[in-house]
């Protein structure tokens, strides 16, 4: 035979008598690798997280998106300034903050004063450098925190009472809340008109009248709770007690704290008008308490 050289490739290995076991293929992964932004599934659909990240990065790097965000921020800032400006035209925020300057000790003492005012001796509002002290420093100062919380509690309590009686519905609860709010507004407007006609010279403002008018909801809550726990007899007892206590509180507060002793002077006709205004405001409270509660206790 011719001596033809045989050239073997580097990958060729002679077959021996013993066969090597073939390695098993790697098992498929339980989850697709989405670290690169797309899944390994056919079709190349992006993973949800990668799509969101891609969109966010795209928006951040897009100049038009940045301009739109800056323009939207400027519009929101301008709108906020307009709202604050219009709010300051009709409502003094600093005066409103005064009526919410309360603490836990004041709220507890004020609630006790509203329920049992007969032993209270000094009803004058305290001043410091011709500026009235905030409610947390003066128990006689009116506040709007208790009326606001009492109104919200009354609405929730009315819903519970209607639910116990199987008469609850969103329409009935909304009508109850709106009726109570309308009556408060009408009462404050009537008091403002009475103050104007009686020519009362005092620092009595709309916030003062709203505070004194809203204190009735403390009596409303006590009356409804007592009625739910002890029936109609307990309701009428609580109604009589809270009504008389609130009338006494309103008379003493309006005569000394709100109107001031100086405003009670002057001609006799003016004094009578001021006295009628005070008594009328006090006598109206039991009627309102009964009107807001009698349909909730049966």
From TrEMBL:
GO cellular component terms given for this protein: COPII-coated ER to Golgi transport vesicle; endoplasmic reticulum membrane; endoplasmic reticulum-Golgi intermediate compartment; Golgi membrane
This protein's name: Protein YIF1
Keywords attached to this entry: Endoplasmic reticulum, Golgi apparatus, Membrane, Protein transport, Transmembrane, Transmembrane helix, Transport
Domain of life: Eukaryota
Region (Disordered): 14-38
Transmembrane segment boundaries: 144-166, 172-197, 209-229, 235-254, 275-293
Organism phylogeny: Eukaryota, Metazoa, Chordata, Craniata, Vertebrata
Topology in membrane: Multi-pass membrane protein
Record-linked InterPro entries: Yif1_fam
GO biological process: one example: endoplasmic reticulum to Golgi vesicle-mediated transport
Cellular compartments annotated: Endoplasmic reticulum membrane; Golgi apparatus membrane
Principal subcellular localization: endoplasmic reticulum
Coiled-coil residue spans: none
Family: Belongs to the YIF1 family.
